Prior knowledge:
Blueprint (H helix, E strand, L loop, with lengths): L4 H11 L2 E6 L5 E4 L19 H22 L6 H14 L3 H8 L5 H5 L12 H25 L1
Antiparallel strand pairs: 1-2
Amino acid sequence: MKTSELGINLITHFEGCELKAYKDSGGVVTIGYGTTIYPSGNKVQEGDKCSHQEAVLYLKNDLIKAEKKVNKLINIKLTQNQFDALVSCVYNVGYGKTLFDTINKRLGSIWGAFILYVKDSKGKELLGLKRRRNAEAHLYIKNEIDYYEDLK
């Protein structure tokens, strides 16, 4: 599967676009739409700059990695919304074992699994990450809610 326009908009909304590298709240040097490693494999360095066009290129590269991870590690059929929600989460935090296990093994609460990933790399809980995980969980669950509503 590939990320839809809705999924890309979700990612870019929460990531924002910074054309000058900065340290995020966890101290990770980031540029563009959350890029930490350039397509060349080099780490983003403080003081690096990019154009908006380059930021979009980095986004597309990072998006491909996140899509591959979701496509490889999720073993159930996903709707487009579910895929987009998972790609957004993976794009932001990388592989979330508990989230993926909850989905693959159909265990526990999807919402509860998403909300586990609300801390920065230093372990500090962030309101922005809570908002993002809630948006992702809502998008993931939306089709299930719609599906069950259609059965009534």
